[in-house]
Write a structure and sequence with these properties.
single chain, alpha/beta
C-alpha cells in the first residue's frame, strides 16, 4: 500500500499493522508527532479503515440545542458561555420558552433535543426530571440527549443520592442518551489548569460507566488544543477505548477543537492556544486507528471547524457530521466560524461532494431516515 510513498519505516510499519488491528498508545504517540510526507499516508490509512468499517455513508442528525441556562457555578478557563447569576446577560429559560424552541424544532423534523446548560447552584435531580417530563410529555417520540456528567454529579449531590439512583431516575423520566461533555482532557494535570472545579478524571469515568450500566448510552468527546500535550490526547483516547471495551455504551466519539479567541485563559494572556489544521487531522486519523470498530462512529464538529474544514476532516477517518443544531449558544459564545445552525441541504451537499451518501439518523444510531423524507413529530 505504501510502496511508492516517501514514508519513514517506523510510520509505515505502524500503518501496515493498523490495517488489521488497533494501534497501541506508544504507536499512537508516534503518529501524533509525525510531520511532512508521513501525514498523507496516515490520513489515507484512516480513510481506508473508515470505508472498511462503516462504508461510505455519512450520518448526521436533525436536532436542536436547548441551552436552558448560561448561569454556571463551574467557571472553566476555556468557556466563554457561563455567567454568574447576577450578570446582566444571565438567563434561565422558562417552560414556555423551552417548549416554544422545541415546537419550532419538531416542525423542522427534529429527531433530537440536546438539552444542556450551565451548572445551576441549586439544580437537583427533580429539576432535571421536570425538564425531561416537560419535553417528553409533549414530544414522546423525540429523543433527549441531555445533561453532562458534571451536571448529573452536582444534581445527585444536591438531592443526596448516589449516581446510579440519579441516572435511573433520569432514564425513567425520559433521558435517552448522555452527552460525553465535561470530559475535556481526561488527565488530572490538564484539568487542574482549565477546569479544577469540574468532576475529576475518576469521577467522570465512574459517572459515564454508571450511566451505561443503567441503560443510558451516549457520546464520548475530547476537547483539545489548549494546555494539554500530544501524549495527553492519546491518553484520553485510550481511556475512552478502555471504557468502551468494558461497557459498549458509547455511540460515537467526538473530537472538538478548542476555539480559544474568547476564552478566559486566552484573554488572560495564555498563549499557544488552538490546534493547527494538521493537528486536527492527525487527531481524527489516530482516533480511527485506535478505536477502529470499537467505536465505529467518529464525528466531525462542523460548528467548531467550519463547514469547509469539517468536510476535509471526513477524509481523515470520520463518518458523522453531528447535527443541524438549531442554535448552539455555547459554541456561538466561543466564536463558531460558520454559525450555529445548519440545514439538511448544507450537510447533504458537503457529503455528496465527497461522493458519499448523506443519511439522517437518530441519537442512538438505531434508526436512519432517507434525505428529503421529512418526519415531523407532532405534539400530543
Amino acid at each position: 500500500m505504501f510502496d511508492k510513498l516517501p514514508i519513514s519505516s517506523k510510520t509505515e510499519k505502524i500503518l501496515t499493522k493498523s490495517l488489521d488491528e488497533a494501534i497501541s498508545v506508544e504507536e499512537a504517540n508516534h503518529l501524533m508527532n509525525i510531520k511532512g510526507p508521513d501525514l498523507y499516508p496516515l490520513l489515507a490509512t484512516a480513510d481506508y479503515l473508515r470505508h472498511k468499517i462503516v462504508g461510505d455513508n455519512v450520518t448526521f442528525i436533525n436536532n436542536c440545542n436547548i441551552n436552558f441556562t448560561n448561569i454556571c457555578t463551574v467557571r472553566c478557563g476555556f468557556c466563554a458561555f457561563g455567567k454568574d447569576a447576577d450578570d446582566p446577560e444571565a438567563y434561565i429559560m422558562n417552560d414556555e420558552q423551552i417548549l416554544s424552541k422545541a415546537e419550532d424544532a419538531v416542525q423542522k423534523g427534529a429527531h433530537e433535543f440536546c438539552v444542556m446548560g450551565g451548572v445551576l447552584p441549586d439544580a437537583d435531580i427533580e429539576y432535571y426530571e421536570h425538564l425531561l417530563h416537560l419535553l417528553k410529555d409533549e414530544y414522546p417520540d423525540v429523543m433527549i440527549h441531555g445533561f453532562s456528567p458534571t451536571m448529573i454529579n452536582d444534581a445527585c449531590m444536591v438531592s443526596g443520592m448516589d449516581i446510579a439512583e440519579g441516572c435511573e431516575r433520569l432514564k425513567d423520566a425520559g433521558l435517552d442518551t448522555l452527552p460525553g461533555t465535561a470530559a475535556e482532557i481526561l488527565t488530572d494535570r490538564s484539568r487542574d489548569l482549565i477546569c479544577p472545579e469540574k468532576v475529576s478524571v475518576s469521577e467522570w469515568i465512574d459517572i459515564v460507566k454508571t450511566a451505561h450500566e443503567v441503560g443510558i448510552p451516549g457520546s464520548a468527546t475530547i476537547m483539545y488544543g489548549h494546555v494539554e500535550t500530544l501524549e495527553e490526547r492519546v491518553e484520553h483516547i485510550d481511556i475512552i477505548r478502555q471504557i468502551q471495551e468494558e461497557t459498549h455504551g458509547f455511540t460515537e466519539f467526538i473530537p472538538m477543537t478548542f476555539m480559544h479567541e474568547y476564552s478566559p485563559i486566552f484573554l488572560e494572556g495564555q498563549s499557544n492556544l488552538g490546534a493547527t489544521g494538521t493537528e486536527d487531522l492527525k487527531l481524527y486519523a489516530v482516533s480511527r486507528l485506535m478505536l477502529r470498530d470499537v467505536i465505529p462512529n467518529i464525528q466531525v464538529s462542523w460548528v467548531k471547524m467550519g463547514f469547509r474544514f469539517a468536510q476535509v476532516s471526513l477524509t481523515a477517518g470520520a463518518n458523522d457530521l453531528g447535527g443541524t443544531l438549531g442554535g448552539d449558544e455555547l459554541s456561538e459564545a466561543s466564536g463558531a466560524p460558520d454559525g450555529v445552525d445548519a440545514s439538511i441541504d448544507t450537510l447533504s451537499n458537503m457529503v455528496k461532494n465527497l461522493d458519499r451518501n448523506p443519511i439522517e439518523r437518530n441519537s442512538k444510531y438505531t434508526e436512519f431516515y432517507p434525505i428529503g423524507e421529512k418526519k415531523v413529530f407532532a405534539s400530543k
